[in-house]
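Quick one:
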Amino acid sequence: MIYLTGDTHGELDRFRKGKLRWLGKNNTVIVLGDFGFLWDDSKAERHMRKWLEKRRYQVLFLDGCHENFAMLEACPTQKAFGG
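Output:
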């Protein structure tokens, strides 16, 4: 199943509470803009990203207008899903 959300702005509550906390390995969450977990690379932010990486489901995101584009552009890219 694919779940859509948006404007998480670096807040884990959306992932910790509600239906997202019960998703499993066959699920994908797509954040439609303003993901916010790639902003200042602080220790707290790195901790939150590690927490997200440990989820059983896959987290994907589209960048929004409130992102650190310099940090995003420095990230490695990889092809997935045939694209």
